[in-house]
Specification:
The chain has 455 residues and is α+β, with helices and mostly antiparallel strands. The chain is built from 15 helices and 23 strands. Strands 21-22-1-23 form a four-stranded mixed beta sheet, covered by helices on one side. α6 packs parallel to α7 and α8 runs parallel beside α10. The radius of gyration is 22 Å and the shape is globular. It starts with a strand and ends in an 18-residue tail after the last helix. It binds uridine-diphosphate-N-acetylglucosamine.
């Protein structure tokens, strides 16, 4: 087992680049199974979710190789249409393989996917869409067995909710279906446009990706291409929040500022000075953050549900009371109970979370409950007085590439420790920088320990 040890209250300072988008790379890797040839995918983050996707591709008979951040998938000899349980369980987004396998093989057999514990995550929209494209579903001992012996055929599909995964699955499956598919109420996330760019680069004919109506004119087959995955907007947002919660001054380079357009006004409302231009965003945080009255998570371009937990962590030390309403997932506040261990004051009622800012947090021993909630604990640890120990890192490693290295480069004191107590090599010891970056005595986060840290 590994854990992160954080000595908090180091003011983050500097410039970073974020890795490629996990949520783009996953559907693109799945779509590579539909391609009759070689796909070269650049800027693929080194994350355990990506490993899981590679395991599935390999199991399907694709030849996959990885060199740094480039993954090459040769799906020419794909010869399997079944994904075993253990591979499906590795991640929720394994369901996005459904459209690719069905489109390529005319049959797909898989079980319900795994993933983050953030509430009921049905796949009814995926299933119904495949049926509308002509697949016939048989349930066989808990497995979903889809048949389309004569191939898929284009259809008009209206999504009851603009599901990201369902939109992606339809686009992939419809890319080589016979005729035209029209998706209405499609998701508009940047990852949808990135997937369309990959598919179109491979010979697909997809129009309107990024809008709520997407038109796919099926082509006979797809051929190999090279594609570069977009930067990870959720990781970029998370690191900006790390700068904010530590009274820091940081720049995130090589991102698309418009992709984090819903976060920037929230950071400004919290009193941060934001400058954005071209491919970067810089943040300078005030000595004490202000509360943010009301944030509602919404489908893109609204405030992303994936940034809700990190935002909560930031607001725990803001001056005043903030409210967040989670509209996408019904049970995505598991981090709240762990944040309370730092002395945060949070109450959750249904989909609403009320965060009463405290002057400072105190280091705690906590367990990451899920991917984004896990990073929220890192943010609390960065802000807190004293030492924080975080376990459950397997959740965090699904979506953030070596976060400790990124944070250390900004002046944080974060070490990843193996069970037997050895720190991993990249951990930087920067005593001088530590002193320079430490919050000065009397700063907001210093002072006497707060009583009743665990409410
Ligand atoms: C994707 C992202 C995830 C993000 C989410 C919402 C990936 C790999 N993951 O997940 O990080 O939090 O979008 O932005 O890209 N729903 C149904 N039936 C379905 C499908 C979805 O009811 O068949 C519901 C879900 O339970 C949820 C909502 O729709 O309440 C949104 O889910 P969806 O957009 O599909 O999220 P994912 O694609 O799973």
């Amino acid at each position: 087992m590994e854990k992160l040890i954080i000595n908090g209250q180091k003011r983050l300072n500097g410039e970073i680049e974020v890795h490629g988008s996990k949520n783009s790379a996953l559907p693109i890797l799945a779509a590579a199974a539909l391609v009759n040839g070689v796909s070269e995918i650049h800027n693929c983050p080194r994350l355990t979710d990506i490993d899981a996707a590679i395991h599935i591709l390999t199991h399907l008979g694709c030849r996959v190789s990885r060199s740094g951040h480039t993954v090459t998938v040769d799906a020419t000899a794909m010869n399997n249409w079944e994904v075993p349980d253990e591979l499906m369980r590795e991640m929720r987004s394994s369901v996005v393989f459904l459209g690719a396998i069905l489109g390529r093989a005319g049959r797909a057999k898989l079980s319900a996917p795994g993933g983050c514990e953030i509430g009921l995550r049905p796949i009814d929209l995926h299933i119904s869409a495949m049926e509308q494209l002509g697949a016939v579903l048989e349930e066989d001992a808990g497995k979903l067995d889809f048949h389309a012996p004569n191939g898929l055929a284009g259809a008009r599909i209206t999504l009851a909710f603009p599901s990201v995964g369902a939109t992606e699955n339809i686009m992939i499956a419809a890319a080589t279906a016979k005729g035209r598919t029209i998706i209405t109420n499609a998701a508009r996330e940047p990852e949808i446009s990135d997937l369309a760019d990959f598919l179109n680069g491979s010979g697909a004919r997809i129009h309107g990706a990024g809008d709520s109506t997407v038109i796919i004119d099926g082509v006979e087959r797809l051929a190999g291409t090279c594609h570069t995955v977009i930067p990870d907007r959720i990781a970029a947002s998370t690191y900006l929040l790390a700068g904010a919660v530590t009274q820091g001054k940081i720049c995130v380079r090589d991102i698309v500022p418009a992709h984090i357009g819903a976060l920037l006004p929230v950071l400004k409302e919290a009193g941060c000075d934001i400058t954005a231009s071209g491919r970067w965003v810089c943040l300078s945080a005030p000595p004490r953050l202000h509360r943010v009255k009301m944030t509602r998570t919404m489908p893109y371009p609204g405030f992303p549900t994936d940034v809700q937990a990190p935002l909560t962590a930031m607001l725990t030390v803001a001056d005043g009371t903030s409210v967040i309403v989670e509209n996408i997932f019904e049970s995505r506040y598991k981090h709240a109970a762990e944040l309370v261990r730092f002395g945060a004051k949070i109450s959750v009622e249904g989909r609403m979370e009320v965060i009463e800012g405290v002057p400072y947090l105190t280091g705690a021993s906590v367990v990451a409950p899920d991917l984004r909630g896990g990073f929220a604990l890192i943010l609390a640890g960065l802000a807190a007085r004293g030492e924080t120990v975080i376990t459950g890192l397997e959740h965090i490693d699904r979506g953030y590439e070596t976060p400790e290295a990124v944070l250390c480069a900004l002046g944080a004191d974060v070490k990843r420790i193996q069970e037997h107590g050895t720190a991993k090599e990249f951990t930087t010891e920067q005593p001088a920088a530590d002193r320079a970056n430490s919050f000065a005595p009397g700063d907001r986060l210093s002072g006497t320990p707060q009583s009743g840290a665990a409410e």
